[in-house]
Amino acid sequence: MAxxxxxxxxxxxxxxxxxxxxxxxxxxxxxxxxxxxxxxQEKTIAILPxxxxxxxxxxxxxxxxxxxxxxxxxxxxxxxxxxPETFVFTYQGDGDLASIGTAEIIHAAARxxxxxxxxxxxxxxxxxxxxxxxxxxLGQKTTTSPQGRKAELTGYPLRVCEMLATLQGVTYLExxxxxxxxxxxxxxxxxxxxxxVQLAGKGFALVEVLSACPTxxxxxxxxxxxxxxxxxxxxxxxxxxxxxxxxx
Amino acid sequence: MGTTRKAQLLQxxxxxxxxxxxxGVRFYAGYPITPSTEIAxxxxxxxxxxxxxxxxxxxxxxxxxAVVGASLTGVKALTATSGPGFSLKQENIGFAxxxxxxxxxxxxxxxxxxTGGPTAPAQGDLMQARxxxxxxxxxxxxxxxxxxxxxxxxxxxxxxxxxxxVPVIFLMDEVIGHMRxxxxxxxxDELEIVERKRPTVSPEEYKPYAADESGIPAMADFGQGYxxxxxxxxHDQTGNPTGKTAVLEKELSRLFHKLEPYREEITLxxxxxxxxxxxxxxxxxxxxxxxxxxxxxxRKQGIKAGLLQLQTIWPFPDQxxxxxxxxxxxxxxxxxxxxxxxxxxQRTMQNRKLLNSITKINGELFTPQEIVNKVKEAVNNA
Lengths: 248, 382
Description:
By secondary structure, chain A is of the alpha/beta class. Chain A contains ten helices and seven strands. Chain B has two domains: about 10-190, Thiamin diphosphate (ThDP)-binding fold, Pyr/PP domains (Rossmann fold, 3-Layer(aba) Sandwich), CATH 3.40.50; about 270-380, Rossmann fold, CATH 3.40.50.920. Helix content of chain B is about 40%, strand content about 20%. In chain B, strands 2, 3, 4, 5, 6, 7, 8 and 13 form an eight-stranded mixed β-sheet that branches. Classes of the chains: A alpha/beta, B alpha/beta. Chains A and B meet through helix 3 of A and helix 2 and strand 3 of B.
């Protein structure tokens, strides 16, 4: 009998520690599938964040560097410039990438660094227990916006793709979601596209994946999916913001 | 004395937060970081209720920058962080030291270096609290060993920072920050709350860095008609940058030495059974708790031990160390780092041969027995 579905080679035989309904597991798997399909496992260097995905080294069966909080794109720059033959991607959450690491991501993008970025936006700080993120939606309750996020106090959620799309150094930008199978497949396609940009030496590519954090949103996994579908996508529209054809 | 307040079960981070409000802190800016996050969460809930301001900033640097800005307007300001964030805050801590801007930085220490162990206790930021930012600068660091002290010493920290126009580092640790204890807080009218000295001269006559005999210049609130210049550059008494060496010699010397006349006031400590002690343990923070239990065990076993618990770490209490280590048969410095406090004690002690360092850097709190064993080993070998 033919094997039609198995664990990607680039994922270790370790059970995910992520909370029920968390999307890191799906996104990890998609990244690993693409690494396998493009035969990149032996040349991949993953730069991991501080946040829930700090534990990515437990799951990705590739070389892993855990950067200091927010600094993954800077570390990736050093790695890729010295070893251009390797495949380098960062995997970062919204606090890591869009708050403490804003400078690093903007400048890596502006330089057109030939790296790939997987940016997981779940609109909250997971690892520290549910504080407001730069991408927390207006009205959303967190432990540091207990009354719900108010624009007059904390401004507006940051749309990273839209912001980076203004930069010339950027080659590929897409925002996707993993709230249903159709979007999971689209996300995989986007990740593959982004990785291929790097393989072609065409510069900076980022895929933003909207994802759920039922634990810190204080929702059931099912309600959290609805929140992604009905609230997050509303503020963070899905789509390709920049692509290779546009650049060429 | 005595208090009319009711006993309550409080967490160290909570006690620190409550005290900050009590001391008059009305501004908090910071970034989430374990094991200090409860302080930010408390401030997010409570500050708006009493007319204060809470803001979560984009990173640790900005959190510290906002605290500097808030304090310049005359508002008592505080931030909380842990090792990795403390490293990032050093730029603006130096700025606050140089421009003499009162502020309190709570550092709930976790294991380091770098990301280290977010939920594991350590006391490795002792030297960073003193010299984390570049250049010769004054700084105060206090360290509580109980939930009650997290409360009383936070009030001291805010007071010192306002009175002496200096950043105060509040060195907690993961154990003290996350531990819950039954505490009875002191009555409010027993608490001394200090306000910074404001100018009594007109705006035209005001010089922000001209100190009277106290050595501490009066500080005008920004936005109140006193126009003055704030800079991290070398500056003269008007606050404007200068490169005149004679001026710099004088001004930087005042800055660096400004806490010296107040050493006694700033030096806080506790002693336990030191009167007849032949062996002295010196410790602080969470390690002091294990040390105290060790002293009790040692006493029961016929070894006359005592404990000196430092609450003020910086400026280093040289005199206190000298006083309590004289005539001892042995001195043991107990700390959860590789021996940072011991180095300072060594510098201060007359007879260094009597000094022993007891350290632990694996993220697990000392058990009293571990300390007892080390002390007995040294006593038996002596």
